[in-house]
Amino acid sequence: MLTKNDFQIIEQQELAHDIYRVILHGEFNYAGVKPGCFVMLKLPDEAYQLRRPLAIAACDSVQKTITLIYRIVGDGMRLLSKLAPGTIVNILGPLGNGFSLENVDVGAEVLLVGGGTGLPPLMMLAQALKEKGCSVSTAVGFRTASMIFGETEFERSGQLLLATDDGSRGFKGNVGELLAAQTTVSKYTNVYACGPEGLLKMVQTRFVPTKTAIYLSLEGRMACGVGACEACVVSTGEGTLNKRVCVEGPVFNGREVML
To answer: The whole model's pTM is what?
Structure first.
């Protein structure tokens, strides 16, 4: 059930350079949240009419909280980072089709691949896969060490493979190069990825020739979040823009979506 409710900010924290975590308290359809779902957040300033799409990094139906992680890009996100605990924001959600866990077996070896602000939905997914009894490995990449976040969440769920472009932490290079250096990539039954388009294309190139099931969470530009504006359409065949990231996605079968 889709709802539009006021939430109170109870915590705001900078996790890394220009990366923030905000925890919100309020009434929500917590039972309808799957890893990969998102919300549309309305800033408490009439100068910003469009809502902002933000992936759900965690939710707690007992405490009635949702956790969002975002990067400061533009004045709207900078305003959000300045909002103090106690501030009220309006949330529309949960939205989108998230990652399904029905097609992964208990005990399966799975791989999560992410970069930048593609990590928040993978945090929730990693925890869900661990709870299902899967062996979880996560490969994540950042430009430099000062931009790293999410280590604790991913290490709590399994193995973390970390890369930085400048080699300041972990493997020196991007995530694609990190995976190329691994000799056990073929062991994974399922791969889940979220991040910039280049990262998603890399995952397709590497895993489409294999038997691995591929699921990609796309970061489409959204204006409404409910499919009305069709600003976030992608193709799943013959070059026709026929699927909306906000409604049919953001998670798609990696063997079908055309990037």
So the answer is: 0.94
